């Protein structure tokens, strides 16, 4: 499987194209679809990858990566249905949409792999979770994992866990951005210039993430290493606990999971 079509060239679709090219894929083996002609022309000029119609992509590509918004999936499946079969591989990057939806709408035996990526794909640091559908084999999962490894890390999970993955890592970057935004505002409140507050917090976030990744220490151990008796950090932690930050995060992630479930159910009768 060498020819890949990315259906939908938004941020995630473009990031995948860029990563595949950086990973050594030839531009002639890639193609993409894009509804807006100006955007399509811009991407072709920048990456040297051809823009095509959905029908052309279905006829020419071995792997079709569906990267449209979940609410836009129906017309795409309508176009793909008469053109795909067991010799194609469909990769869904659409949040909340189960492989069963594709399997109902496409020809019997069409292999589908569901993926939940996240936006750090644009800097080659995505966390992507893959789940095979009924007709997808271990080889299909290997192919998809290899493609996604060009733009970050990959883990395989049962599809029953995809809604949880969506809530945790799919939406996860937004939680970190939210926290960083609040901490920058706190720095300004304490009298620091915005540029200084941003530098302090962003680098602290990068450094903390690298420590988590490289030390294999539990987050509690790393936090305790910063938390001296009667010091500044423990006073800050007390306030976070007093205001229910931990409980709020748990509730927020549950709410995101529930919304992912709703997105999938909205297409159950289609």
From TrEMBL:
Residues 159-263 form the Pyrroline-5-carboxylate reductase dimerisation domain. InterPro entries: 6-PGluconate_DH-like_C_sf (IPR008927), NAD(P)-bd_dom_sf (IPR036291), P5C_Rdtase_cat_N (IPR028939), P5CR-like_CS (IPR053790), P5CR_dimer (IPR029036), Pyrroline-COOH_reductase (IPR000304). GO terms for cellular component: cytoplasm. It comes from Amycolatopsis marina. Pathway: Amino-acid biosynthesis; L-proline biosynthesis; L-proline from L-glutamate 5-semialdehyde: step 1/1. GO terms for biological process: L-proline biosynthetic process. Its EC number is 1.5.1.2. HAMAP family: P5C_reductase (MF_01925). Keywords: Amino-acid biosynthesis, Cytoplasm, NADP, Oxidoreductase, Proline biosynthesis. This is Pyrroline-5-carboxylate reductase. It catalyses: L-proline + NADP(+) = (S)-1-pyrroline-5-carboxylate + NADPH + 2 H(+); L-proline + NAD(+) = (S)-1-pyrroline-5-carboxylate + NADH + 2 H(+). Residues 3-96 form the Pyrroline-5-carboxylate reductase catalytic N-terminal domain.
């Amino acid at each position: 499987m060498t020819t890949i079509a990315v259906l939908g060239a938004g941020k995630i679709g473009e990031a995948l194209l860029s990563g595949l090219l950086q990973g050594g894929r030839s531009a002639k083996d890639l193609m993409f679809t894009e509804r807006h002609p100006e955007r399509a022309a811009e991407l072709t000029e920048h990456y040297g990858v051809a823009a095509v119609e959905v029908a052309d992509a279905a006829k020419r590509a071995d792997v079709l990566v569906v990267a449209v918004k979940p609410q836009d999936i129906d017309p795409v499946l309508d176009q793909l249905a008469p053109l795909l079969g067991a010799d194609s591989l469909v990769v869904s990057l659409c949040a909340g949409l189960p492989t069963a939806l594709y399997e109902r709408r496409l020809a019997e035996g069409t292999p589908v792999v569901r993926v939940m990526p996240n936006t750090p794909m644009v800097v080659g640091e995505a966390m992507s979770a893959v789940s095979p559908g009924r007709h997808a084999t271990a080889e299909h999962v290997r192919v998809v994992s290899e493609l996604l490894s060009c733009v970050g890390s990959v883990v395989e999970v049962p599809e029953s866990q995809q809604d949880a993955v969506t809530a945790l890592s799919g939406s996860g970057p937004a939680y970190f951005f939210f926290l960083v935004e609040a901490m920058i505002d706190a720095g300004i409140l304490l009298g620091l210039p915005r540029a200084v507050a941003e530098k302090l917090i962003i680098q602290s976030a990068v450094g903390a993430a690298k420590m988590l990744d490289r030390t294999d220490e539990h987050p509690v151990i790393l936090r305790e290493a910063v938390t001296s008796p009667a010091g500044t950090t423990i006073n800050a932690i007390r306030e976070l606990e007093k205001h229910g930050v931990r409980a709020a995060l748990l509730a927020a992630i549950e709410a995101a999971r529930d919304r992912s479930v709703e997105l999938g159910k909205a297409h159950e009768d289609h």
